[in-house]
Design brief:
By secondary structure, the protein is an all-alpha fold. The protein starts with a helix and ends in a 5-residue tail after the last helix. Helix 1 packs antiparallel against helix 2.
């Protein structure tokens, strides 16, 4: 259950952070206005809150692992929302990052 919870929280955090950054990008770079920027700022704040719900209490570990989720999630977001087509090196890099997430979060710990 802890692994499943952690994965769900990482996905929620990714949607909030990547979506928030995308909304700010749209508001500023694509001239969509303050409503997009404001919604993006709220989503980015929500990301910070969701990260605190992770079962592991170590901020550095959670943020480091989330970095790998962010890499893979950003490529996926670009594919779904912006029509981005990753090349094989994007896919390899994202896979390496997700493997790193698994090692950081779920590797055996000595007490």
């Amino acid at each position: 259950m802890t692994v499943a919870r952690s994965i769900v929280l990482f996905v929620l955090a990714a949607v909030a952070e990547i979506g928030g950054a995308w909304l700010v990008w749209q508001g500023v770079r694509e001239h969509r206005g303050w409503a997009f920027i404001g919604a993006g700022v709220i989503a980015l704040g929500l990301y910070g809150f969701v990260a605190t719900l992770q079962p592991d209490a170590n901020f550095g570990r959670i943020l480091a692992a989330y970095g790998g989720v962010f890499v893979a999630g950003s490529l996926l977001w670009g594919m779904v929302v912006d029509g981005f087509r990753p090349d094989r090196w994007d896919v390899v890099g994202a896979t390496v990052c997700l493997a790193g997430v698994a090692v950081i979060m779920f590797g055996p710990r000595t007490v």
